[in-house]
Amino acid sequence: MTPAERRKLSRRPSDRAVTAVLAFTGLVAAFTQTLVTPIIPELPTLLHSSVSDATWVLTSTLLAAAISIPISGRLGDMYGKRTVMLVLLGSLIVGSIICAFSSELIPVIAGRVLQGFSLGVISLGISVLRDVLHPKSLGGAVALVSATLGVGGAVGLPIAAVVAQNLDFHFLFWLAAILGAVGLVLVFIVVPPSTLRTGGHFDVVGAIGFAIGLIGILLAVSKGNTWGWTSPVTLALLIGGVVVLVIWGWFELRSREPLVDLRVAARRPVLLTNLTSITIGFGFFITTAAFPALLEAPVATGVGLGLGLVAASLCLMPLGLVMFVMSPIAARISGARGPRFSLILGGGVVVVAFVIAVLLHAEVWHIILISAVVGVGVGIAYAAMPTLIMHAVPASETASANGLNSVMRTLGSTIAGTVTGLIFAGNSRVFHGLAVPTDAGFRIVFIIAAAVVLAGVISALFIPRREPSYTTTSSIPTQPGSPD
Question: Which GO molecular function annotation, any one, does this entry have (predicted)?
Answer without folding.
Answer: transmembrane transporter activity
